[in-house]
Request: fold
Amino acid sequence: MTQSCIHYIIIFMEKLIECVPNFSEGRDMGVIAALRRAAEGISGVALLDYSSDPDHNRSVFTLLGSPDGVSEAAFRLCRVARDNIDMTRHSGAHPRMGAADVIPFIPIRGSTMDECVEVSRRVAGLIANELGIPCFLYGESCTREERRDLASVRRGGFEGMPHKLLQEEWAPDFGGRAIHPTAGVTAVGARKPLVAFNVNLGTPDVRAAKSIAKAIRGSSGGFAHCKAIGVKLESRGATQVSMNMVDCDSTPLHTVYEAICEHAARLGVPVTGSEIIGLAPADALIDCAKHFLKLGDFDRDRQVLESRILEL
Amino acid sequence: MTQSCIHYIIIFMEKLIECVPNFSEGRDMGVIAALRRAAEGISGVALLDYSSDPDHNRSVFTLLGSPDGVSEAAFRLCRVARDNIDMTRHSGAHPRMGAADVIPFIPIRGSTMDECVEVSRRVAGLIANELGIPCFLYGESCTREERRDLASVRRGGFEGMPHKLLQEEWAPDFGGRAIHPTAGVTAVGARKPLVAFNVNLGTPDVRAAKSIAKAIRGSSGGFAHCKAIGVKLESRGATQVSMNMVDCDSTPLHTVYEAICEHAARLGVPVTGSEIIGLAPADALIDCAKHFLKLGDFDRDRQVLESRILEL
Reply:
């Protein structure tokens, strides 16, 4: 049996989980490189993608591997973030409360949501105990319903956290009731896969992006599985509707994209392009192709070659 | 090691090829069921898809498996087609010359085009010798450059074949110079994957479909890797631009779809929908999503989760 076959056997016997940690540094290439190095070279973990945005001042890493390997990588990344990112000097367009801002674990193959919840609790405990950073559990890992939504957990931002942690209902799940002085607070949790989807507008005035974000997000009456904010992209002289699409089967990318185009047209603002941060499931994109090509009867579960090969 | 792991090992060690045979029967459910049964239950072969169209009067099967298994399935299907389809009584919108009209073999994984050429020669020999049906080799298997293009090989159709086979340059590659009286002639070959993509027009007048097909196909000056004909869909009171997209990396589906929409709009004819017959590679669809969502920097080789998992 060849080496590559042995490799396949290992992969297919293993539980696979994904981790997509977000760090509050998108400008300093030295810090970003240090984070990258921390994610590499851990047995059983692949760094699939990393992406930095100077206007968000934020970097997103995508890790895939065994639960133990991915946990170890997430913890090492947090340590590097704590040692290199000073939140008292951080500014950026994206909401944030910590150097390691949010650390979600996602079941991919051979693993369950419960296992990812377990992993998130273990990692949050380590971050609090070993790194001195208080942690909230969010998403499927939440210990109170009002902590399920990341936006609620993060409300107040880094600057508001010292006060928030002292409120009775906002005692951290792990760690004390004072922020880490430079690394703030970290949210750790388990969730389903999501698509980080941003649509860019050709205007420096952020009001259009904010108004469109409000119109399309579920929390203010828009699409159920769409979270959206309007942000300014200073370096590009542009603005952006920045989204998390948390269930693309129910609320597809194309539905939201077309709604944004309609709103933008009414406001007289051009849609200049879109971006997906990190990875997206093939189905989320194939559904868009089906919509735009009017492929009414196309059955993505039967008619996509690669998924049929995998199925075998 | 579990049974399913053993199964994975077998699949990954095996050469995988695809075969997409087309048969000239799309109406008689008894014959279609007999064809389906012939394709099932062969060790090492999966019947991934089958699709029948009453207006084309044609069925397309998609087989995946080992070269030996797929060859055996293709041969058995041809025998059932010969015994059950009478071309002297066949009518349909799609060009055709035989009961088993065209049998392409496609390298998928661990196999080469040369191996598929070899398979096509072997199967064509069997069809001629065992079933008494003369065969042309086409595509990558062609023995003369003018037989590379299926449309050239098939020109004249079933009705024209008795005369064509007697022409000096059209001696079959296998079999004698007379058609099988009821099964006609079969084209067998090897080719790259293609996407069978049809766009439907909301008019019963076939002139728009024919004029659009002529404008977009490479052979009359349109898109290089697009083959197209205009056909009438009697049962639906509609018409169709029926295409083979033979290189979606170079000529993407969305480019051709948008060109068809523009031509149709100029002719005042509505585009009512599209269809993909059989299977399509995920990348051909993901490229469409990227185009329509304006995902300028999206890197399909890095940012699609499933392909990264496979890569591991």
Chain B touches chain A through 53 residues (CB under 8 Å). The longest helix of chain B spans residues 113-131.
